[in-house]
Protein 1
Amino acid sequence: MDWSAIVANAPDLVVGLWLTLRLALVSACTALVLGALLAWALQKGQPWLKGLVRAYVDFVLGLPMLVLIYLLFFILPEYGITLSSPVVGVTALTLYYGPYMGEVLRAAFGGIPRGQYEASAALGLRPFEVLRHVLLKQALPVALPPSVGLLIGLIKDTALLSVVGVEEFMYAAKQAISTSYAPLEIYLVVALAYWLITLLLDSAAGFIERRLNRHRTA
C-alpha cells in the first residue's frame, strides 16, 4: 500500500467529498419537494394532470440515470439552454429521484384511513395541526426506510456526475490517480468513504425509526 499517495491527495479528495455531500443534500431536498408535488397531483389533481404526471413518472422510472445526465448536458445546448455542470447534476438527480420520492410519499400518506382526516376536522384541528399531530406521526415511520434507501442511492449516483466534469468525489479520485498512479489505494479510500456514509445514514435512520415507533411498542 502506497500511503504517501493517499496522504498527498487527501486534501483534494476531502474537497471532492464535501462537494458530493452538498450536491446530495441539495438534490435530496429538491427531489423531496418535487416528489411531494407529484404525489399531490396523482392524489388530488385533475384527470389530465394525473395523466401527464403518470407519463412523466413512467418515463423517468424506465430511464437510466446516465442517459438523463447526457440529455441535460449535451442535448439542451443545441436548443439554446446551457447549464453548468453542477446545475446539470442537481437537476438530473432531482428529476430522477423526484418520482421515486413521490411514490414513497403517496404510499405513506395514502395508507392513512380517510376517517382520520374527518375526525381531525371534527375536532377543529387546523391543517398544520392535522399534518403534525396526525399525519406525520403515521406516515414518517412508513416513509423513512425507503426514503433513506433512496438517499443512499442518490449519494452513490453523484459519482456519475464526474462524466460531465462535476468536480465531486469520484472526479477528485480520478484526478488523484492520474497523478499518483495508485488506483488501488485511491479507490479503496473512495470505497471506504461511501461505505461509511451509508453506514452512518442507515444507523441514523434506524435510531429515528425506533424513536418514531416507540409509542407502538410501549
Note: The domain at 3-217 is CATH 1.10.3720.10 (MetI-like fold).
Protein 2
Amino acid sequence: MKIPELMLVNEIFRGLWTTFKSMFEKPVTIQYPEEKREPKPRFKGRHALKRYENGLEKCIGCALCAAACPSDAIFVEPAENTDKKRYSPGERYAVTYEINLLRCIYCGFCADACPTEAIVLEKIYELAYRDRNEAFFTKEKLLDPVSDPDLETPQTVEPGSFPRSIPLMKDPV
C-alpha cells in the first residue's frame, strides 16, 4: 500500500471509531410536545402586560415602548383615567395596546424603555399561527388575568380615535 492509501484507511477507521463511541452516549434529543425544555435565563419570548397586585394595569399609555421599537411593531393609544373608572394608577392608561409579532424582532427594547415595567418578554416560546391575524396581539391577549374578578372594571373609552400606525395584515387570497 502506498502512503495516501494508508492515510485514507486510517481516516476511515477514525470515523468508525467516533461512530462506535457515540453509540454508548446518552442522546441529546428531547421528545418536544411531551417534554418541554426550560429556556435559557436570557431568553426573550412572547410579550405580556403586567398588573399590580390590586388589579390595576401597570401600563400608563406613555408609548415609550412604541418609540423604542426598531421594527415599529407596537401601537399604543392612550386615554385619560377618571375617578369613577380607573385602569392604572397614573393619569392615563392604554386603551389600545397592540403588537404585531410578525414584525417583532424580540430585541427587548420595549421592556427596557417601559418606566413602569408593564411590558415584559416572558419565557413562552410556542408561537405558531395559522394566519396573520393570529400574530396580531391585542391588549386583551397580552394582559395578565385578574386574580380577583371584583377588581376588573369595564373599558369605557372606545379604541380607534387615533390613526393606526400598524396596518392590519390580510392573508392573500
Note: The first helix runs from residue 3 to 22.
Protein 3
Amino acid sequence: MQTKIATWWAGLLLAMAMVATPVLAESGPVVKVETSLGEILVELNPDRAPISVDNFLKYVDAGFYNGTIFHRVIEGFMIQGGGYTSSLKSKKAYAAIELESRNGLKNEKYTVSMARTPDPNSATSQFFINVVDNPRLDYPDPDGHGYAVFGRVVAGFETVDKITGVKTLTRGGMADVPSDTVLIREIVRQGGESRTKD
C-alpha cells in the first residue's frame, strides 16, 4: 500500500512540475569574443534587432573583427571596438545600416549596442559594451535617436571589467585609447570558427 501511495505522489509531483515549468523561448545565437585580456560570450537578439544582428554576424563570419582592438575605453560608461587595427588604422566596413533603437531593449550594464556617428543610420562594424546602466543612450535620448542594443554579455563579465579598468591616453588624435593594446583576437560563433578569414 505504501509503495502505491509513494508511486502516486511521485506521479502527481512530476505532473505538477511539468505544468509549473514554463517553456523557455529559444535563445539567440552566441558569439565568443576572444581578447588579449580574456573571453567574452555575447548572446545576440535577432528577434528584437534583426538588422543589427545580421549585420554583426556578417562581420563575424567574414573574420573582419580578428585583429581589431577595443580602441575607446571610458570607465563608468562603455568599452568600444571593432573598427580599428592595433596601429589605429580604420578598417573598411560594409554599408551602414538602419538604426533599431526603438526595439525596446535598454542600454543596461553588460548589454551590447551598435556604435554610430551623429547620423542615426550610420552604424557599420563598431560596437560597444555598456559597463553601467546607460539610460541616457536609450531612445529618444541623447539626440532624438538613441543607440540600438542587439545583444548582451552572458559570460566573461570579469573580462569586460578588466578592460574597463585599463589605463588610457590620447593617441593618434583619439582620446580614451588603452595605453596597452586590448586586442580582439577573433570573434566567432560559439561552437564554430568563422566561415572565412581575412
Note: The chain has one domain: 30-189.
Protein 4
Amino acid sequence: MSPVVLISEKLGIEWLNIFDDEYVYGPTPGIIEVAELLMTQLKPKTVIDLFGGSGAISKLAILRGARRVIYVDKNPEAALLNLRSCKDKIEIIEGDAFTFLNNKVQCDFMVADPPEELISDLFDRLKLIRKSITKAALIWLGPSEKAIEYMKIVGKFRMAVTAKVWGDAFLIIWKPGFSQIIRDVKRRLE
C-alpha cells in the first residue's frame, strides 16, 4: 500500500482531493511525521492548518489534544467530508490562506502545506507567520532537492531550522522558550 493510503487509513481520511481528474492530493508521510512529533511535544491547544487539503493535519491535531483547529483551503470539499465527526472542534474556512494570514490570527501551532508553486509566496510571509504563533510553525518547503535555496536562507534566521523527512524539506520556526523541544524533535527526525 502507498504511504498516503496508510496514513489516510490511520487518521480516518476517506476522501482525498483530486485535481485535473487524475492527481490525488493526500497526507504525505513527511508532514504527518513532523507534525505529529511537534504536536506531541508542544501540546498545542489551538492549531491553524493552512492549505489544509484533505483535513488530515486538522484531524491529527484533534487526535493529539488540540481544543480548537482552524482549517483553511480554497477547496475544502474533501475536508468537509473527512472532518464531519470533529465539526465541533474544527472551523473550516473556504478561502485563500494568504488573505487569512493577513487577518492577524493567533494560534499555538501552525502547519502550512502549500502547493509547490506557492512556497516562495509563503516563504515571503515568514514574519507574519511568526507573529501569528505562540509556540511554533511547520512549513513544507518542497522536495529536498528543490528546497536547497530555501534551506540556505533559513540558516540566517534565529529560531528556525530545516529538517529533511521522507524526501521532503520542512521549515520549523518557533518562539522563545521552545528551543530545546525543537532541537529534540529535529534530532529525532534525522
Note: The mean pLDDT is 88.
